[in-house]
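Researcher: Go.
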Amino acid sequence: MAGRKVLGGKGLDNILESFAEFAAELSFNDLPANAIKAGKERLLDSIGCAINAYNCDTAQIGLSLAGRAPREEVSGRILASTQVVAADAAAFINSCMIRNLDFNDTYPGGHPSDSLGALFAVAPQVKALGRKLLTAAVVAYEIFIRVQMAARLRERGWDQGFGISVGAAASLVNLLGLNREVARHAIAITAVGNMPMRATRAGQLSMWKGAATAYAVRNAVFGVQLAAAGMTGPEAPFVGRHGLFDLITGPIDLPPFGREEADFFIPRAKIKYWPVVYNMQALVWAAIELRNKVLPEELASVDVDTYWSAWHESGSEPAKWDPRTRETADHSLPYILAWTLRHGDIDHRAFVPESYCDPSIRPLMNLVKVRVNEEFEKDFPRTVRMRVTAKDRAGRSYEVNIVNPLGHEDNPVSAKELATKFVRQCEPRLGGRRTADALGQWRRIEEQTDVNEAFDAIVVEGRGESARLTET
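Model: Structure:
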């Protein structure tokens, strides 16, 4: 499959055909160097995020409801554990872990790594080659990012679970080596059954904010299982009557698939340096720089210029100016700014109730005003820009401009920085020696002849078969 090949089909739904063909046919040998590198980085980053949150509340709730699979071929493994349960339940639990801390990678409008919970559940059970896991992950990212780029569902009030579920279904097709016909049905079933509302991420945010995409991933697993068992799906879920075009987006053009470096979008998925919503990454860096110029107690006003989605998501509604849940706090522009101004950085300490409900931080938050800058909006998402201007009580002015913060594709994290993030997240759970071993295993994931070795390396003590499990 050398050279550029635009994929498409002659069926009723050209988008469905292209997704099915890409999912069924992409192999590791088709991947250019940039896709392999980006895929490995994002697998490693997602594993670190999951291990750091392995005992989070959403995953524990999922675990309490998980039952054993009726047959081995529909079973899945839980991250940080040797437990095997029904694959859809394992996928839900895994994606809850990946997503919980809001520290995993992102592309404007969603988090492509949320889809990986399904692959992490199924790959060990089928004793997949590391290169198969990596290739399947690339499939998930490429489909999700294309959907986000073209459909702009977030701007239309729909949640990211649609693209996540379709990408997850396609990635499982690839991992399991299912044919194009099964792929077509699996993707169609998943697409029509998963169109979640953006209300998940409005107002005071709930636990569901960190579980909604996990739910979509769970549904994708079941959709693939149904298709593999012979269930047929609708013939035109994207372009047909009452499909995506008809009901929500109107006609859209998705970038075609190919085999050249420029055809792969996975390097555009941004890796986070701070555990807050991606649109606030630049804000944290701006606050650090501003703090180096003026002490927070001396400030009289702080004005933030940003792009629409950053304002809309983190500064456009009353809840973000008075966060009362952890999920709201890590999406609150004034809170993230105020905390960072006070402390010089931001980490898990900011997201406990005694921090985000602390009345003493509200006056500093109330100094903040935010507006959409039309130039910044025009440049987004290719360029991420944020400007903070402030005045102190003596009338002196300060200005900080941040363009493409660390983790942006034009300002990527280094191998050392990514390893440091992984170690900081895993070492408290695994210890130094085992963390180093896990880092080595996942850095060489494409060399693994059975991914179970890499998954065994991240088992947290006490998370074996004796952990809590509902029998069926």
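Model: The chain has a mean pLDDT of 94.
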